[in-house]
Structure formats: C-alpha cells, structure tokens
Amino acid sequence: MSFFSAFADLVDRLGDVLEPVAGTASTAAAIVLFTAFVRLLVLPLSRAAARGQKARTRLQPQVAALRKKYRKNPERLQKATLELYAAEKVSPFSGILPSLCQLPAFFLMYHLFASAEIGGAPNTLLGHSLFAAPLGDRWKDALADGGMFGAHGQVYLALFAVVVAVAVYNYRRTKRQIAAGAALTAGDTEAVPGMGAMNKIAPLMSFMTLFTVGFVPLAAALYVVTSTLWTAVERTVLYREEPAAVPVAA
C-alpha cells in the first residue's frame, strides 16, 4: 500500500467514525480534525515564533539605533543586526517555520483530492461532499453548477466569508502592530532595510488566502480556512502580551 493510499484510508476511516455526529459531512469533519491535529503538532514552533516576535519588538529601538550608526555602511549594519539577534538568541526566521512545516500537510490534502486515482485504484474520497459541494471540486465547478448562489456555490460563499472576516481582523491587528513598532523606533520604518515596503504589504497578506480557496479542491480549501481561523485565534492568545520596548539613544 502506498503512502497516499494509507492516508486516504485513514481519512476514510476517520470519516466513518465521525459519521454518527457529522452525517454526510463526516469526511469534511475529518479534514477539519486532521487540520487541528497538524496545528497542534506545530504549536511548539508557533510558541517559539511568538517569543521571537516579542523579542524582535523589544529590540526594535536597538536595531533603529544601529541603522543610524551604520547608515552609510549597509554590510556593517547587517552584520551588527545579526550579531544583536544572536546575542539575544533571537532568530529572524522563526516566524516562518510554522507555515513551512504545514506545507507538506497542505500538499498532501491537495494531492489526495486532486487525483482521480490513488494507488492505482479509483479515489473513493472524491465521492464525499460538504453539503452540496463535492470535496474534489473547485470554485469554477460551483459556478458552473448553479452559479454563485446555487447550493454548491453557497458552500464557497460561506468559506469566503470566514476568510474575509479573519483577513479584516488580521489587517487591523497588523496595522496596529506596525504603528506600535514605528512608535518604538521614533517613526523610522526602515529600521531594517526593506521594512518600509514590507509594512505596506504585510497587512494585505491575509486576503491572499481568498485566491487559494478559490483555486484548490474544496478539501484543500477547507484545510486552508480551518488553519487560517486557527492562526487568528492562536495569534490572539500567543501575542496578547507584547512587551514594551524602551527606546535607546542613537
């Protein structure tokens, strides 16, 4: 039995267990449960990322001071910044580890519901649905089957509504964090080279999830929406006590 066949069988069996509670949406419920399990596995990395973010916030005034000191020497600025992070045991890349570790699970779910066959046999999971929407279909299939407000399309509208609500929440939260960070560095948004451009893009990143949900199989979209909602709740809890940084003299 191949790895994909074993995983398909696992999802199918989990769906059978959940059927008395979830009914015809049992396989969709199994995907949600699988997503929660993956997020629990990467929770230690998420906690480390939160600690790293709090430490970077605390160090923003020092980074701004280094930038002013080495304004004409970008190479020395980069070295000094990395030395500061190393001395404080802060990794500038810790924030992306939780997302990177989830990619295999996402691509596994994508492959499972984008393949007509698994292990040389017909993919029976494609026969399962979330209400009126088959888990292997995409948004374009919903538009072709009753349109945006048809029974198929309404499932996607509900997912889009959740994504937009989370994206708006993240947008406002990120804007507040950026404003607070700018205040700590006396408005110097370029405390790290390129940070000014990143600060303009970062608040909008959550809206990119809409494109993912619209173009991947519904099962993978359900994984993304569940993970996105989990992330919003997780960040609210883990980042609720941002440390105050004390500005330092340049």
Topology:
Blueprint lengths: L2 H20 L3 H16 L1 H27 L4 H14 L9 H18 L2 E2 L2 E2 L6 E2 L2 E2 L4 H6 L6 H34 L10 H7 L7 H7 L2 H21 L12
Antiparallel strand pairs: 1-2, 3-4
Helix pairs in contact: 1-2, 2-10, 3-4, 5-10, 7-9, 7-10, 9-10
Assign the structural class, choosing from mainly alpha, mainly beta, alpha/beta, alpha+beta, or little secondary structure: mainly alpha
Major sheet size, sense and barrel closure:
2 strands, antiparallel
Mean pLDDT across the residues is 82
- Name the shape in a single word: elongated
The termini sit apart by 63 Å
Helix content: 55-70%
Pattern of helices and strands: HHHHHEEEEHHHHH
**Strands, count:** 4
Q: Number of helical runs?
A: 10
Note the beta-strand portion. under 5%
Rg, alpha carbons: 22 Å
Residue runs with pLDDT of under 50 for 5 or more positions:
187-194, 242-250
Strand order of the largest sheet: 1-2
Please explain how this structure is put together.
Residues 187-194 and 242-250 have low confidence and may be disordered. The protein is elongated and about 65 Å long. Strands 1-2 form a two-stranded antiparallel ribbon. Helix 1 packs across helix 2 and helix 7 (151-184) packs antiparallel against helix 9. The protein has 10 helices and 4 strands. The chain starts with a helix and ends in a 12-residue tail after the last helix. It has helices at residues 3-22, 26-41, 43-69, 74-87, 97-114, 139-144, 151-184, 195-201, 209-215, 218-238, and strands spanning 117-118, 121-122, 129-130, 133-134. The chain is mainly alpha-helical.
